[in-house]
Predict the 3D structure of the following.
Amino acid sequence: MDARDRLKIGISACFMHADPNRALFTGKTLQYVEQSIAHWIMSTGSLAVMIPSPTGATQRGDVTLDHYAQWLDGLVLHGGADVSPLSYGEQPLQDKWSGDKIRDEYEMDLVAAFERAGKPVFGVCRGLQLLNVAYGGTLYQDIATQMPQALTHRDASVYDRNFHTVDIVPGTRLAQLYPDAQRVKVNSIHHQAIKELADGFIVEAVSNEDGLIEAIRRPRDDDRPYMAAVQWHPEFHQPGSDTFDDAALLDDFLAAAREAKAKTP
């Protein structure tokens, strides 16, 4: 397939902020993507493009996030550092949960740019939380502290081998994509979660054992592009395993990107 015919999917950047005590790239800010999220997108033949933040101490030129939103066909917000409680009007309960407000502001600006361009957005893990906060929702800063009765949603000792089951909400788009799946097994690598759902979004899946929100979507209309997110990491699914096969979910997002591409002059 010619490169011009392939979808171009942007991935938001993770930040490793400047640290004078770091031996490698001393005092320099790094922006990067985790390999598996890029490979997940590329598995379909789409081109994965990291979107660097155009702002910061070394800023040069006139490139904006709107330029990327106009050029690309869709956006994936991927995992990483905590969303800062300051981004949803709270103070951190502990310093270690302060999050990355710089990345929050960058990603919220990214979402707004893709909204203006009419391009689809899909969130993974932190991406789900960021979308919820960007549209006025709030988070549990730490599940174990604020919901002690909840499951262990993150276990550092096993990382992406921590699993639990979720129930897909009947009547949702996710249920339509998986008509034969009501309860599915997903990976779980998060210690924060949605507390108050943002206005305009609906819940598509919940952790069946403790009720935490695991998937959300904003119903589409002519004025609002596709926007959906999951709390688990679909890019970590191994073919042949008993965890949820997210292929239909990715295809649904890419169909929206293809639709947006067709509308782009």
About this structure: The radius of gyration is 18 Å. The longest strand covers residues 163-168. The mean pLDDT is 95. The helical segments are 35-42, 65-71, 101-117, 126-134, 143-146, 173-177, 247-263.
